[in-house]
Every structure is written in structure tokens, then in C-alpha cells.
Amino acid sequence: MDSRPIGVFDSGLGGLTAVRELTALLPGEDIIYFGDTGRVPYGGRSRETIIQYARQDVAFLRSFDLKAIVIACGTVSSTAMEVLERENPIPIIGVVEPSAQAAAQASRNGVIGLIGTQATIRTGAYLRRILALRPDARLIDVPCPLLVPLVENGRFRPGDIVVETVVGEYLSPIKAAGADTLVLGCTHYPLLQEVISREMGPGVTLINSGAQGAQAVLRRLTALDALNEPIRRGICRYFVSDSIGSFVSLASIFLGHDVTGEVAQVDITRY
Amino acid sequence: MDSRPIGVFDSGLGGLTAVRELTALLPGEDIIYFGDTGRVPYGGRSRETIIQYARQDVAFLRSFDLKAIVIACGTVSSTAMEVLERENPIPIIGVVEPSAQAAAQASRNGVIGLIGTQATIRTGAYLRRILALRPDARLIDVPCPLLVPLVENGRFRPGDIVVETVVGEYLSPIKAAGADTLVLGCTHYPLLQEVISREMGPGVTLINSGAQGAQAVLRRLTALDALNEPIRRGICRYFVSDSIGSFVSLASIFLGHDVTGEVAQVDITRY
Fold it and tell me: Are B70 and B93 in contact, with CB atoms under 8 Å apart?
């Protein structure tokens, strides 16, 4: 038993879809969330900049006494996982490994699609993990730089010609290759699940990387005997690097409910 | 005569459209450009964060011996112009004042449209300047958060249903109000000029804020007797806060020609 909170971070708000899964799966756990809203998005930045930002995000979270840290961001998980694990003596759970495992298991024909940010696709992290688990697999990966801005501007619903056109273009090579499994390699994308699912058609399994990350946290904390006793509902505290004004309204879209816990601003460049 | 360079900065690459106008108008001037590519975009961030970033941008530029600084960014010009002028004993030229002047002069019916980032519209800076110059004017201002990501992903050409739909939605209340003049209040938007012009129809004057900023530089330096002698073609040096790799390819879209000068990376958080 370990009653310390779990730290969760993302470049911005997308990681809240992972928090949503985490609180559904582990309702007794306290969570400290950091969203780097002053420097979002990470997905178009260089490897060096992403690593620098991720180090500061983890340093801030470690100013709390945590039992584990979740990288609720496809870009950081793909780019900085090894660096962060090497530098921090605390369990760190990313979204790449559990999503790759789920995709390798789910696919029948071995043709797997992956959508993510430019940085995520550039690293080849998903490709390496999927091929290690399933050498016969064929991965079709497509960088989707417009999906994060579209989602953050509320354009994720079916019937919107803008989002349907953009999603259709991005998914076209994945559909053409006959993929039966598609990894949503960015924690913003679960909001697009309905549009993506309609575009891919029935029979294609969508892998939600935030949900897979939450499952991995459950497995890891169970193995470490570090789950909290579910006596009371866990508390969630939120920290952001830009002002908190716009956070609260946008956050509810990703969380699926209103923000109830404390929200505070932090100067992330000090970490 | 003053042979020192002109400093120009923007949150990212949009300011290069102003550099393009500046080098056409003042080919003998040397330019030091800073683009905050490690923290772009500014347009959705809070006033406090934009001011903090803008202060660092100016502090970096002032590590050179400059004769003037151009804020080639609608968001920073609207949000931080007064703060930056107060804190820095060097001529600072923004895009709001010259664009507001041009719009107030160009409009026949006094109905003026303005498109810009969320931060630009929130400040009301354009509204105040236009009403000061022309109290009978009516301003219809629309925040356009998706235009910067669309342009930066190369979606600015006529015939693209995505950009045409988004632009059509944003411009709809401006068209409905019968505006005869439209301020492109962000230095990314000149790339959308053709799409916007077709949507607005003939007879509507588009005000390019980067070009107006360049005209203001000419007027200011002439008044100060601080133009360079046009003996040789000016040199442009570029500094960015993210890695230089992606800069060079994207920059040519905004400049209208290849980047020929020096490009270097700078750690902007040190300033």
C-alpha cells in the first residue's frame, strides 16, 4: 500500500484524457497533473527542445512526493522516455509501450496504422516496439500536425467538413494499406474517436493510448504493491504553466466533467 | 545616417512576411530576426505570458547594437507594445498603429473588419486606435485561432476546402456587416490573401499589417535621419529558439525566397 499521489504530465490538455481513464480505473488514487500550457504544443518541436521541456516537467512533478509518474503525452513518451527513466529513480510509465503491446495483440492481419504528432512519428519509437513484439507486423505511420489544433478549437465532432476532410486525408494511406488496427498515438485523439472510427469503418480496432497508459499504471502499481486503499475518492490537483483562466473551460472537454480540484499556475522555467 | 541593423521579432515565422516587405522597401538595411519557434504560437496564451515572452525576445535582440526594433507580430504588438516601449530606450515599431491608420484612411463606409489571434482581439488595441482616428467607424473583429496552424501546415491555397471553409466561417460576420476594409491583423495572414480576397469579393481593401509595419519603419527612420546608405544590399541574420532544421524549409514560404543569411539557435529563456 502506498498512499502517495501519482504524477501525470502532458504538453497541454490532451493528457487529461488519460487522467479520465486513470480515475475510472483507479478511483482511490490522488493525482497531481501538470499541463505545460505556456509552451504547448510539443509535437512540432525538435528532439532537443522536447527533452529539455520534459525534464523540467518531471522536475516540477518531483517537487511532490510521488509514487509514480505517467507521461500522458505521445510526443514525450516517444522522444524522452529513456532519458527520463535514466535520470529519475521513480517508476515512469509512458504510453508507447502499452499501446504497442495492445496493437500487436489486437491485429489479426499484422497491418497496423499509427497517427501521432510529427515528433512522435519521427522517433520511430512505436515502430521499434511493435516490431520487437511482432516481427511480421507492417506499420503505416502518418504525422497529423493539424489534429491537435483542431481538437483544441472544438472541431472534433462528426459532420464537421473541416475535421472530416483533414482526418480523411491523414487516414487515407492507412486505409489503403488495409490496416485492421489503428493506434491513436496522441492523447488528444480520443476526442476524435467517432470521426476516426467512421472513416476507418467497422472491424478496425482503435487503440487509445491514454487508456492503455492507465492500464499500464494499474499493472505496474499492482506489481509494486503500491496501490492506494480505495477508502475515499482520490483528489486531483492541476498545475499549468500559462494562466489558469482558459484551462478550466477547456479542461472539461478532455476530462468529460468539470474540474473540481485545485488549479494553480507554476513557472516551469524555474525547474 | 545610421548603419546599425534593425531588429525584428515574431512568435515564430509569420514575421518573415514583414521582413519580406522591409527588404523590398529598404534594401540597404541589415536585419537581425528572432523567431521564438520553441514557444510558438503566442496567440492563444495569456496576457502575462505574452508579455514575459516578448520581454525576453526584446532583451535578446538588444544584445545587438540596433537602431530600432520591429514587433512583426500582431499578438505582441496588441498586447505588449506599451510595456516594451516604456522599458526600452530604443525606437519600437509595432503593426497595430500603422495598420489602424491605413484602415481608417481606406474605409469609405466606416465598416472595418479585423481578423487576428484570440489574444489580439481580446486586447481591443485595434478598436481603440481605429476609433481614436475615426470615431464614426464600426469594427467587426473575429478571433481566428485556426489560421496560424493551417498556414504553418501549408494549407493556404485557393481550392483547399479545409482552409476555404474555415476562412469562410471566420469572415462571415464581417461580410454580413458590409465591411469595405479588412485588417489582416496577424503577420501569417498575407499568405491567405488570395483565399481571403476571393471570399470577401472585389471592392474590399485588405490591409497587410506586415507591409504597414514596414512603411512605418521607413517613416520613422526617415524622421530620425537614421536610414542606412544604400551602397550595398543589406544582410539578414536569423535566430530561432528551437532547432534550425525545420526553420530553413518553412521560412522560404514566408520570405518568398530561400534563406541566404546565417541561421543560429538561441536559448531565449536566458534573456
Answer: yes
Average pLDDT over chain B, rounded to an integer: 96
| Cross-chain residue pair A242–B150, CB shorter than 8 Å | no
- In chain B, which segments carry CATH 3.40.50.1860? 6-94+211-270, 96-209
Q: What is the dihedral of CA B15, B19, B25, B28, to 10 degrees?
A: 150
- pLDDT tens profile A142-191: 999 999 999 989 999 999 999 999 999 999 999 999 999 999 999 999 99
Which residue in the set A48, A161, A246 is minimally distant from B161, CB to CB? A161
In terms of Cα–Cα distance, which of B42, B64, B60, B27 is closest to B188?
Answer: B42
ipTM, 2 dp: 0.92
End-to-end CA separation in angstroms for chain A: 30
Residue B243 with chain A: CB contacts under 8 Å: 46-49
Give chain A positions within 8 Å (CB) of B39: 38-39
Contact B243 A153 (CB under 8 A): no
Helices (H) and strands (E) in chain A, counts: 11, 10
Q: What is the pTM of this model?
A: 0.95
CB B15 within 8 A of CB B8: yes
**Rounded CA gap, A125 and A115, in Å?**
13
Q: Which residues pair with A6 in a beta bridge?
A: A31, A68
Domain spanning A6-94+211-270, CATH class: alpha beta
Which positions ≥6 away from A11 have C-beta within 8 Å? A35, A36, A39, A40, A41, A42, A43, A53, A73, A75, A76
Q: Of A8, A26, A73, A214, which is the active-site residue?
A: A73
CATH placement of domain B96-209: 3.40.50.1860
Region A4-13 average pLDDT = 97
**A68, A147, A150, A186: the active-site residue:** A186
CB contact under 8 A, B146 and A150: yes
pLDDT for residue A232 is more than 90: no
Confidence of residue B212 (pLDDT cuts 50, 70, 90): very high
Letter for the amino acid at A256?
Answer: G
Q: Which of A38, A46, A165 sits opposite B45 (nearest CB)?
A: A38
B45 grid coordinates: 496564451
- Residues in B closer than 8 angstroms to A165, CB to CB, are 161-162
The highest-confidence range among A248-262, B186-200, B225-239, by mean pLDDT, is: B186-200
Contact, B111 vs B140, CB < 8 A?
Answer: yes
Residue of B79, B144, B153 to mutate when probing chain A, most A C-beta within 10 A? B153
Instruction: Measure CB to CB from residue B242 to each of A46, A153, A245 and give the nearest one.
Output: A46
DSSP-assigned letter for residue B62 = T
- CA B162 to chain A, closest CA, distance in angstroms equals 5
In contact, A148 and A41? CB cutoff 8 Å = yes
Q: How far apart are CA A84 and CA A66, in angstroms?
A: 15
To the query of whether residue A73 is one of the catalytic residues in this protein, the response is: yes
Is the pLDDT assigned to residue B180 strictly greater than 80? yes
- Tell me the chain B residues in contact with residue A44 when contact means C-beta distances shorter than 8 Å: 152, 246
